[in-house]
Design a protein that fits this description.
The chain is an alpha/beta fold. It has a single domain, classed as Rossmann fold. It has seven helices and seven strands, in the order H-H-E-H-E-H-E-H-E-H-E-H-E-E. A seven-stranded mixed sheet has the order 3-2-1-4-5-7-6, sandwiched between helices. Helix 2 packs parallel to helix 3 and helix 6 runs parallel beside helix 7. It binds S-adenosylmethionine (SAM). S-adenosylmethionine binds next to helix 3 and helix 5.
Length: 255
């Protein structure tokens, strides 16, 4: 795992945020005695992210012993038309980022593609298996596409299909390139608004910044896009994730 951490934080690995999220999901699963999890990229486009996710999942499965099933969900035809300003209409246009599905299918080795509007497919995918979901990498850009995905993750009937804390990544919270100067993200539009609406609407499920990122070397934009879904109502939310030896904070120099 040390080699993986070094690669993750010090080399130009593709989609390090995905690797970081899947790493957390595998470590948590392992601590809880879960030997198989699902992870999903929601919003696939050309497939660069999904290919990176496949790669990270197989590396981390080898390192942790947790089997990781990889899924990608997308309509294949690019962004739907936004409804209003919440969908960042000044930047995102209908049809942006369409997929070449046939080409992508030839490149995938293990990931499964679920083609359809995520407003219809995400919840049924979530509930289609008892294998818990450990990470959701959200990159559907629009408020109208993100909010239903989050609603499914917070619904009472999906509790049994999730780890108690699910690693999340939101691609469209902060810009990652200088060319994105006019994207003008805000806390009141797009994915950020979907997160705050979710938190307002749920008492026992909250989506919070993954604060472990403050310990990471270097300060990178993706650190601000790493989140965790906390399902406080999950039967394993309070299950200990470390050995039962009491923690001690010794005086320095004491034996
Ligand atoms: C920015 S692209 C994803 C890029 C990809 N994650 C990557 O790293 O290469 C956004 C994708 O979200 C998909 N999308 C947005 N809203 C959707 C919806 N309601 N249902 C299905 N797909 C949607 C679009 O088709 C598009 O492919």
């Amino acid at each position: 795992m040390l080699d993986f951490d070094h690669e993750l934080h010090y080399t130009g690995m593709a989609k390090p945020a995905y690797a970081y999220a899947v790493q957390h999901a595998c470590l948590l699963a392992s601590a809880l005695g879960v030997d198989r999890i699902r992870v999903a990229e929601v919003g696939v486009a050309g497939g660069q992210g999904l290919l990176a996710l496949e790669h990270h999942a197989s590396t981390l499965a080898r390192a942790t012993g947790v089997t990781v099933e990889v899924f990608g969900l997308d309509n294949g035809s690019g962004l739907p038309r936004g409804a209003d300003h919440r969908d960042v209409q000044h930047y995102f246009q209908a049809g942006d980022y369409a997929m070449d599905e046939a080409e992508l299918r030839t490149r995938l080795t293990s990931a499964q593609l679920i083609i359809g509007d995520v407003r219809e497919t995400f919840e049924s995918w979530l509930r289609s298996s008892e294998i818990p979901v450990g990470a959701v990498l959200n990159d559907v850009d629009l408020y109208a596409s993100t909010a239903p995905v989050l609603a499914a993750l917070g619904a009472p009937n999906t509790l049994g299909h999730l780890l108690p804390r699910v690693s999340m990544f939101f691609d469209d919270l902060v810009p990652k390139k200088r060319e994105e100067r006019l994207k003008d993200y805000s806390d009141f539009t797009g994915e950020a608004l979907a997160i705050s609406d979710f938190n307002e609407g749920h008492a026992t499920a909250k989506i919070s910044r993954d604060l472990h990122t403050v310990t990471l070397p270097r300060r990178l934009p993706w650190h601000q896009c790493a989140y965790l879904l906390h399902r406080f109502d999950h039967p394993d939310y309070s299950t200990p994730v470390r050995e039962g030896v009491p923690d001690r904070l010794r005086l320095s120099g004491a034996g």
